[in-house]
Amino acid sequence: MSDCLFCNIAAGKIPSKKVYEDELCYAFYDIAPQAPVHFLVIPKAHLASVSEVTEENGAAVGHIFAVIARLAKEMGLESYRVVSNIGEQAGQSVPHLHFHVLSGRDMTWPPG
Ligand code: AMP
Which residue's alpha carbon is nearest to atom 12 within ligand 1? Predict the structure, then answer.
């Protein structure tokens, strides 16, 4: 989607601090980190959020989780949290599916 921030980041039209990229997904550091390590992993194909994932388009999500596991191992992250906010009340501010990967500090539960 031409007016989508994260589509434009994945396409290299808006600069970002890249962590990883392949044909299905793009990972980059969050511009406002909430932990010592905070990056986002997004599918290149636009989906607004988890609420649009289906059996037909969900392969990218499984792939993204395999990428997250691999990146976490490569970064030496022993403990981390993966978060996806769906909808404004849950805190979603960018309507392109993304998974936050947060690590490097103590975390509380439940999240606020
Ligand atoms: P959410 O609020 O769950 O939708 O997450 C969106 C995240 O995107 C927030 O943590 C923002 O800090 C982050 N963000 C917004 N714009 C950018 C950008 N240009 N580069 C990197 N991260 C961004």
Answer: 32
Q: What is the pTM of this model?
A: 0.98
- H/E element holding 20? strand 18-21
Q: Which of 31, 83, 92, 102 to mutate to test the pocket of ligand 1 (most atoms within 8 A of CB)?
A: 31
Alpha helices per DSSP H over 16-81: 59-75
Closest CA to 98 of 56, 68, 71, 55: 68
Residues 68-108: tens digit of each pLDDT: 999 999 999 999 999 999 999 999 999 999 999 999 999 99
Cα–Cα distance, 39 to 17 (Å, whole number): 9
What are the residues facing 27 on neighbouring strands?
20, 41
